[in-house]
Design brief:
Number of strands: 21
Shape: globular
CATH superfamily of the largest domain: 2-enoyl-CoA Hydratase, Chain A, domain 1
Number of helices: 18
CATH architecture of the largest domain: Alpha-Beta Complex
Radius of gyration: 28 Å
Length: about 525
């Protein structure tokens, strides 16, 4: 059959369109006999969303339906496979990257106004002359105060491209007019090392709050600085650390283990095993190390504790850790959102998995803390449930257990005096921080001549300030709170919070650790050896 020339362009166009359509449907991992078949499970979801989009009686945001569907699917896998919506990706990425571009201030939205708590040391705002107590009124001639402006909107105005300038108008007490500052935006670190200082002449202390991209570099710097001033022993505080990047945990473990010691191995669904070994680059292979863990130390924290425990390196001190032995990989979903999907399990060098069971669902899994509390495990090591079938032995003959967290070598019970429910609530809700800020803001000059060292070692919170805090709380909460039973604990938290707002850089931890029973236990262990 002959085709007239005038129809050739039309037929060619149809052929190209058909090719594009078919090509869009191809999955090159499929077998040839399935190439044109449909996936009924995927089709079902797609059809349902299309029906809602085109036929449902009311207008519906199908994006939100997709989000709910994705979350529902992941909840049926394991507790740690999670969905990250598009709007949360930047915040999550910055947190794990370890920095962002901004002006470098910590602040409160105080009485509807951005109020600087402290300018980041060495950051752009400090260089420009901004100090604690300053109220930032305008950014690039736009007001950033008032009840209608949100923290997200404020942060968006203060962030921007690297090396770009932002013009700020600032109210400062004692000044008759607003002050003008031009601040050049720069990389602002999100610190993962909360504190690094000496507990004694030879015993250093480093607290890590998460394992981000920048953590190993921060840790290495802190360790070298402590070694320069005499640290031959180290306390590594991983309490409350929820984890992070596996490779960062491996790098930190490598600092303590000799070359070719096994750090961990992972196994995926196909049974593929990947082992990680220490290299010769470690700077603390000969030093004594104590690792502090608690029921909120998870994932990468447990990798560190488990690797050192199984290699008979150092002493694990505290309470049984969280029990997360699953490894996630972040995968983009094409619209700016992502999923962190569990892709393997990890095992400590002796071969134990420390992942606790999630067979009874996510709610039961996350309620495990309350179950531990109720059966007395946080106060008595004899109440820790172990299974003989999950017993392992380290090279030097120490018995360790799998099946749900790292059990410490030296148990330290929960300090019930410091874990008073009222104090914990007040700290988490920010009441202590707000009160301290107001007290400090009344007379900052009174603290100007105090050095960090003198404040931490000598400054005392008096009873009048505790009473003032009590009155502040009763006014704010309309409650009837008294601190008779734990007056000293309240003083300690007020002092630590004041130290943080004045000095930052681990001052809070230095104060709090002065009355920390786990630190006291380490000091006793260290002096006895």
């Amino acid at each position: 059959m002959k085709i007239r020339k005038k129809y050739l362009p039309l037929l060619l166009g149809v052929a190209i369109a058909a090719g594009i359509f078919i090509g869009g449907k191809l999955n090159f991992s499929d077998d040839s006999d399935r190439l044109f078949s449909s996936n009924s499970k995927k089709d079902k979801l797609n059809r349902l969303i299309d029906y809602i989009d085109y036929e449902y009686v009311d207008d519906v945001n199908t994006d939100s339906i997709v989000d709910v569907t994705v979350n529902g699917i992941l909840e049926n896998l394991d507790p740690h496979s999670v969905y990250i919506p598009k709007e949360d990706m930047q915040r999550v990425t910055e947190n794990m990257k370890g920095d962002f571009v901004g002006i470098g201030v910590s602040f409160y939205t105080y009485n509807d106004t951005i109020t600087v708590i402290r300018a980041v040391h060495g950051g752009p705002s400090e260089k420009a002359g901004i100090v604690g107590g300053d109220r930032i009124i305008m950014a690039d001639n736009e007001p950033i105060f008032g009840k209608d402006i949100t923290n997200d909107e404020i942060i968006k105005k203060l962030k921007g491209p690297i090396n770009s300038n932002v013009k700020l108008k600032v109210f400062r007490k004692g000044e008759s007019e607003l002050l003008d500052f031009t601040v050049k935006r720069d990389h602002i670190p999100i610190k993962s090392i909360d504190a690094a200082y000496m507990l004694s002449n030879t015993l250093g202390y480093i607290k890590i709050n998460r394992f981000a991209e920048s953590t190993y570099k921060e840790f290495k710097t802190a360790l070298k600085n402590l070694q320069k001033i005499g640290a031959t022993e180290l306390v590594l505080d991983l309490r409350g650390n929820p984890g992070g990047f596996l490779t960062i945990a491996e790098s930190i473990v490598d600092e303590f283990l000799e070359e070719d010691k096994l750090i961990l191995f992972t196994k995926n669904k196909r049974g593929n095993i990947k082992k990680s070994f220490a290299t010769k680059k470690g700077d603390f292979e000969k030093g004594k190390v104590y690792v502090l863990i608690d029921e909120n130390s998870a994932s990468a924290s447990e990798i560190v504790a488990g690797a050192l425990q199984d290699n008979d390196k150092g002493t694990i001190v505290g309470r049984r850790s969280y029990g997360k032995g699953l490894v996630q990989r972040e995968m983009e979903l094409g619209d700016g959102s992502a999923v962190r999907l569990t892709v393997s399990r990890y095992y400590t060098p002796t071969g134990r998995s420390i992942q606790r069971s999630y067979d009874h669902g996510n709610k039961d899994y996350y309620d495990d803390y309350f179950e531990r509390l109720e059966r007395g495990e946080l106060l008595d090591p004899e109440k820790i449930q172990v299974a003989d079938s999950l017993k392992f032995t380290t090279p030097k003959g120490k018995v360790v257990y799998g099946g749900g967290g790292i059990i410490p070598d030296v148990f330290v019970p929960l300090d019930t005096s410091m874990q008073n429910e009222t104090l914990t609530f007040l700290q988490r809700r920010g009441f202590i921080s707000y009160f301290v800020f107001e007290e400090l803001d009344k007379n900052r000059e009174a603290y100007q001549n105090l050095t960090r060292e003198n404040f931490i070692s000598d400054y005392e919170i008096d009873d009048e300030m505790v009473i003032a805090f009590q009155d502040y709380l009763n006014f704010k909460t309309k409650a009837n709170i008294t601190f008779v039973a734990y007056n000293d604990e309240v003083k300690l938290y007020i002092k630590a919070t004041l130290a943080n707002q004045l000095f930052g850089n681990g001052a809070f931890e230095e104060v709090i650790n002065q009355d920390d029973i786990m630190i006291d236990e380490v000091l006793e262990l260290n002096s006895a050896n």
